[in-house]
Amino acid sequence: MYEGAIQDLIDELGRLPGVGPKSAQRIAFHVLSADPADVTRLATALRRVKELVRFCTVCYNVAESEQCRVCRDPRRTEEVLCVVEEPKDVVAIERTGEFRGRYHVLGGAINPLEGIGPDNLRIRELLVRLGTGSVRELILATDPNTEGEATATYLALMVKPMGISVTRLASGLPVGGDLEYADEITLGRAFEGRRAV
Q1: Using CA atoms, how far apart are residues 65 and 54, in angstroms rounded to an integer?
Q2: For labeling, which of 51, 117, 142, 190 is most exposed (least CB within 10 Å)?
Q3: pLDDT, averaged across the chain
Q4: Contact 59, 68 (CB under 8 A)
Q5: Dihedral angle at the C-alpha atoms of 14, 16, 20, 23, nearest 10 degrees?
Q6: Is residue 169 within 8 Å of 148, Cβ to Cβ?
Q7: How many CB atoms lie within 10 A of CB 132?
């Protein structure tokens, strides 16, 4: 629709996940009308993230050094390992302030329709970590969707023969939710995971 640089920007923004054509156009025109100092800061931040950020050599979380801050923290227990799909999941769990163990980031979930199998994830690296004998419990914190469930089931089958306790995050009704708006799967899991009061 547009010429040159503005269309190039719209096209590049449209390639970002969750950004459709209308949003890409809106962001492009915002950038066009923004203060040059703001645009420079954005460009610098984008360049810096590509230059400085890498994956932790232990857990594969994002880090600016060889290891992420969780792996460098000596107060974290090595006996409990939480498996997540993506680095953003580590942030979500850390915000709770409830978990004091360590993490392993798989880099996705098993999804045959997208051509993602166990060999495309960091499962081999997980098994090497578990082979050290320091982990007593493995918490499977993959997403509660078809791909996350398939990944959790696969990992449970691989790890149980190692004698390590394998647990799965509870799922069900959110606090403040209404029963009438819950889907059948969520409500079914809430019944399965009920506890005594």
Answers
A1: 8
A2: 51
A3: 92
A4: yes
A5: -80
A6: no
A7: 8
